[in-house]
Amino acid sequence: MDHSRREGADRMNHAQGSAYERLRAAAAQWKVPAAVREVATAPPGDPEPNQIWRAVWEHTVQLVVITSVDDTTVQAIAVSLERYADAHTLLLPAEASTLEQPLALWWGLRQSLPWCVLDRQVSQLTTPLPVSLHPDCPQQAPPGAQWGTTLPSPAATAAEYRGLVIDHLARLSGARWEPEGTGTLPQLLQQHGINARQLAEHLQLAPPQALSVWRGQTPITPEQAQHLAEVLDTSADDLLTANPALPPAVLHEMNRPLRRWQVRTLAARQGDTEAQARRRAAFGVFTLAARQEDRNDVYWSARADRYFELHLG
Hints:
Layout: H1 3-28, H2 34-41, E1 51-57, E2 60-69, E3 73-80, E4 90-92, E5 103-114, E6 118-124, E7 146-147, H3 157-173, H4 185-191, H5 196-203, H6 207-214, H7 222-232, H8 236-241, H9 248-255, H10 260-270, H11 274-290, H12 300-312
Antiparallel strand pairs: 1-2, 1-6, 2-3, 3-5, 4-5, 4-7
């Protein structure tokens, strides 16, 4: 075994994992920039370009700066407080962000990330990033910033650090929780000889609600899937997968950073993973809306608020 390489990776893991801890330690000092304090204490908002966020999924943590935003993903560049750099790393001075700390932006590692990994905004760039910059053709750096230099060898410490950042971004980019939603629940019920009346009895639903589920117009909740799985001798996951697909607006609402602490609290109370709790909440929010009279005019944010009020108190 190459012990020197393992020790080098351990050092890089420690450096990467401690970056946000050092940020928290700095924020704990008496002199905290007002802009950082304001962001840290405010409810998380939706992402916007030039913001620096803490991205988290399972055991992966990475600071990133947002460059652009759409309804499902953000384009982001990895950020570190370390001064490791290569030729495609933009080194920003302390005054370039509200953190008032020098930053390294790994521009060559720009990645598309789903909203669900965004955990907390920690800072804001005060110097706009170049718009047309390309990793292989670096243009003039912003005032006070500079590009890193070419690494002397693939074994350089900065190269190992870059590899860890690549791994982190790959795991964050691949984060998924959305249920498949095949819409085959009606066929599954019919194959097992379950009609709308029997479904109402099994799930203790009012006849109109049971009929809506039986027709595939309304999804079943994880709790209902668990109960029905025993009746049909199948798994609750298979039943949830057979639900109708969740509307994009529901997925967007449940991916918002504002919902993350609620999802985590729900997961802790129910012994679920974050992904399981997010699916549970998404189906619950959709089911609440499906029971209202006008399904074409749904304020999803209010529905999500109501769901978490009912389940978190």
